Structures are given as structure tokens and as C-alpha cells.
Amino acid sequence: MGGAVVLYGSAAGLTPDKSTAYSQDTPGIFGTAEADDGFGSAVHLVDLNKDGKAEAVVGIPSENNDGCLWIARGTPSGPATTGSSSLCGAATGLTLRGPHGLFGAALPGAQVNF
Ligand SMILES: [Ca+2]
Ligand SMILES: [Ca+2]
Q1: Shortest-distance ligand to the CA of residue 73
Q2: What is this structure's pTM?
Q3: How far apart are CA 25 and CA 109, in angstroms?
Q4: Which residue of 14, 43, 91, 103 is most buried, as measured by CB atoms within 10 A?
Q5: Is 105 domain-assigned?
């Protein structure tokens, strides 16, 4: 289980207006919400394709015992589940140790890099 919420800024600061919550129960997000997935344990906003819109990268460190990242494409109205993608630890070719690989447990932080 777990979740991540995108809040938007305004002249008065962060506002819940237009906020969007994401979890593995959200249509368009891969997998299913399971106990101890840790969806949202780490989050990062970064413009990966340099189009001026931030992608949301969400860590799911206990997904499928190796851990995964979910990446939502940035759009003018915020991160979109349509066309989102995932990357899991074992698929990267990294050697993951221990009962949980914890891929996606740490990301640089919630920030926007343009
Ligand atoms: Ca899951
Ligand atoms: Ca982008």
C-alpha cells in the first residue's frame, strides 16, 4: 500500500485545489496495491525529457521483492497516468541483496529541476 499526492502552488502557497492522489489502485498505474509495497516512499519531480513539464517519479521499494519506480509523464495539467511507465530493480541488471532489494527506496527529493 501507500500513496503519493501532488499539490500545486498558488500565490498563497500550497493549495489542495487540483491536488491529485496516486496509488497502485489508481487506474493506469501498473501492479496492484499490496501490504508493505511502500508506494510513495520516495518521490521526485524532474523534467526527464526536457519539455518543460515535470515527470513524477515514485519509488515502490518493496514491490515484487526487488522494488520499482513508477514514472508519470508530465503534462500541462500535471503528471498523467496515461503513458506512464515503470522500472523494477531486477530488470535493471543490478544485483539486489537481502529479502527486499529496495530499488526505489531513495530519490533525490521532491523538487522540480528545469
Ligand atoms: Ca504492489
Ligand atoms: Ca517532461
Answers
A1: 2
A2: 0.87
A3: 24
A4: 103
A5: no
